[in-house]
């Protein structure tokens, strides 16, 4: 977007709403306004803090708000502008961080009572990069215990509500971040994703979220002085949540700087060579795991039509490899998780314990009661084959349009009602699991509201081609019949 258009829009918003409504502004507008001294970072942070005070007691999205620290950082950001110092992409913009990553001087609880005093000495890579970009961290967002459910509830911090409907999940595990961004507490929330934990909360709360290519955003998913699990190294990545695609571009740029603590980080340009036109998009509705609901199918139809009108060529495709990758997640990730099951048994809340039991009870249908080392080795071998198959497919179709979930936001705690209800949830989330196994970037973008709940679609692209996802997502976003931030309902 041209700078003049950003300035014009920011000026118009300021004229229409006044500085008291800065919490409604996008990160892009705030960054430009702060850089040009149209507004100050302090004003932006104060507005967000006022909004947090208004709606967070209802939603419980942020489990920690550090107002004095944030205002001091905002004052330093404003001073840097006055001095003419170099400014980062998110200079002075309020953001949140998820409570399962280290932030210096704050506790990394991961939603577990036993970890309530786990004080971090230094920032994790994504938090460090947000600071380098000039972002002002205003609070810490909630997550389920051990960040391993699509429902954001734990015994330490309590339940986070969806601002669209309190009876429905805000998604997980970055449900606190999604609820906060959707309701206007800040324009950008940090999240991470090994099984949909960025994409699903964004979908459930009617905002955007991107799971970048593995290696794009540096992260660390192990103990400070220990080792990361293999699935954590190969499948878990940090990513931003925001209310629009332009803000996701800005946040991804800010989070992608090299950090030596990530064993797989790759410094790849954020902008690649233009794709050959017309760009072909594969429309993947169903891989034989869960039939999309009528609302989800309608969202896919609308997105396909919008892309077609924009010059893309959309064709329905079949890709059974996603069903296989979905099941493979329940071998490769769950068997890593099994090595820490004693921690869940000792320190997990009842919700996490029930969820773990239900996960394993369903996974044994595919992998048996206790998969062995040979199963694990063959699973990783098969993973490589599936990745190659998808890469070959993406040579013809550089983009895939697919569901985020086969259903809209689930009723609260649907995963722990029974083994059968968990299976329904698991199957609906087939793309949430398959994509981390394969390692490709994917974005969740909202389209509309159906029966009072947000609905949207997911786009997947070639490795390190997040730019192509943003371009297509902006087409869909331009036609979206959904507006955030919203007041809790």
TrEMBL record:
Superkingdom of the source species: Bacteria
InterPro entries the record matches: Amidase, Amidase_CS, Amidase_dom, AS_sf
Residue stretches making up the Amidase domain: 43-469
Annotated transmembrane regions: none
Organism listed in the record: Fredinandcohnia salidurans
PROSITE patterns: AMIDASES (PS00571)
Name listed for the protein in its UniProt record: Amidase family protein
Family as reported in the entry's similarity comment: Belongs to the amidase family.
């Amino acid at each position: 977007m041209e700078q003049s258009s950003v300035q014009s829009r920011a000026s118009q918003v300021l004229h229409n709403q006044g500085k008291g409504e800065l919490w409604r502004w996008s990160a892009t507008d705030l960054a430009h306004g702060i850089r040009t001294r149209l507004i100050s970072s302090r004003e932006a942070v104060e507005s967000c803090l006022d909004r947090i005070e208004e709606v967070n007691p209802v939603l419980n999205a942020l489990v920690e708000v550090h107002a004095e620290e944030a205002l001091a950082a905002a004052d330093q950001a404003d001073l840097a502008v006055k001095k003419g110092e170099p400014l980062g992409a998110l200079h002075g913009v309020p953001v949140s961080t998820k409570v399962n990553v280290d932030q210096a001087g704050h506790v990394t609880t991961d939603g577990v009572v036993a970890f309530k005093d786990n004080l971090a000495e230094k920032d994790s890579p994504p938090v460090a990069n947000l600071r380098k970009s000039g972002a002002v961290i205003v609070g810490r967002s909630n997550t389920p215990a051990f960040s391993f459910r699509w429902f954001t509830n734990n015994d330490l911090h309590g339940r986070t509500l969806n601002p669209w409907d309190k009876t429905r999940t805000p998604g997980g595990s970055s449900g606190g971040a999604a609820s906060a961004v959707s309701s206007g507490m800040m324009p950008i929330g940090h999240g991470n994703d090994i099984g949909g934990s960025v994409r699903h909360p964004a979908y459930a709360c009617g905002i955007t979220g991107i799971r970048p290519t593995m290696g794009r955003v540096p992260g660390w998913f192990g103990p400070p002085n220990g080792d990361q699990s293999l699935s954590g190294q190969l499948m878990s990545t940090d990513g931003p949540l925001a209310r629009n695609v332009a803000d996701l571009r800005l946040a991804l740029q800010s989070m992608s700087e090299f950090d030596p603590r990530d064993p797989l980080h790759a410094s790849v340009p954020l902008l690649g060579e233009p794709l050959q036109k017309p760009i072909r998009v594969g429309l993947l509705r169903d891989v034989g795991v869960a039939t999309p609901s009528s609302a989800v199918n309608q969202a896919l139809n609308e997105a396909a039509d919008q892309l077609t009108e924009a010059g893309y060529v959309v064709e329905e495709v079949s890709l059974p490899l996603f069903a296989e990758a979905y099941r493979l997640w329940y071998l490769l990730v769950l068997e890593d998780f099994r090595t820490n099951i004693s921690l869940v048994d000792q320190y997990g809340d009842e919700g996490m314990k029930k969820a773990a039991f239900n996960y394993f009870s369903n996974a044994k249908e595919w992998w048996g009661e206790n998969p062995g080392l040979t199963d694990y080795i063959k699973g990783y071998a098969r993973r490589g084959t599936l990745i190659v198959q998808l890469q070959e497919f993406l040579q013809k179709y550089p983009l895939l349009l697919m569901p985020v979930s086969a259903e809209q936001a689930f009723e609260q705690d649907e995963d722990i009602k029974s083994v059968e209800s968990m299976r329904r949830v698991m199957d609906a989330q087939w793309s949430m699991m398959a994509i981390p196994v394969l390692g490709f970037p994917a974005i969740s973008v909202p389209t509309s509201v159906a029966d009072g709940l947000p609905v949207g679609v997911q786009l997947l692209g070639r490795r390190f081609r997040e730019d192509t996802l943003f371009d297509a997502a902006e087409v869909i976003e331009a036609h979206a019949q959904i507006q955030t931030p919203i007041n809790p309902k």
